[in-house]
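Complex 207.
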Amino acid sequence: MSIEKAYNIWANQYDTNKNRTRDLDQIATIETLSNYEFENVLELGCGTGKNTNWLLKKANRIIGLDFSQEMLTKAKEKIISEKVIFKKADLTENWDIDNNFADLITSSLTLEHIIDLDHIFNEANKKLKKNGLFFISELHPFKQYSGSKARYETESETQELEVYIHHISEYIENAKNNGLKLVEIKEWFDKKNENELPRLISFVFEK
Ligand SMILES: C[S@@+](CC[C@H](N)C(=O)[O-])C[C@H]1O[C@@H](n2cnc3c(N)ncnc32)[C@H](O)[C@@H]1O
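Predicted structure with S-adenosylmethionine bound:
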């Protein structure tokens, strides 16, 4: 099943499923981005708007991009604000956003579905203002090596989504090749249990 179709089905239960990765991402996003100021935000793979709500507390303008119509419908039901626009877009194509629009781009739990990180960092560089930030939070590659991937239960089966493994060095190399330097890297553990594999990794890059 295509990734887009799988998310269209997942949309109905995405916010209500037990999902430690989703919940830890929300903590990582808020803890990290609380330390930065931003006005214009471009949210990649905004999904049902889980993080949009919090970003709205600080931002003046947010554009959320996602290719799943059903995820976007949920987001639009939850978030009604003239500061926010949700747009259907495939991130593997060129992003139809003004260059130099954003002082913050965020991407949570989305890049595992995208094979070509070079394209993502190349577009991010174009859409970011000078000194703009790119925040990424993803399933930690250690988890990916051990077989973890995005999945959900339907009435009849477990639906596993198509994912690609990205090594830590790959994020940093692709960012550097596209004019972004690493500012911050963090690993996030379940209930701060550092004896197990970290669940998430997050990066802040700066243009
Ligand atoms: C796990 S969800 C994360 C949603 C949200 N960022 C969050 O943290 O709750 C991944 C999202 O990425 C979107 N996505 C995956 N690949 C995409 C692509 N190529 N273009 C646009 N959206 C994509 C999916 O539709 C889905 O909404």
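The mean pLDDT is 94.
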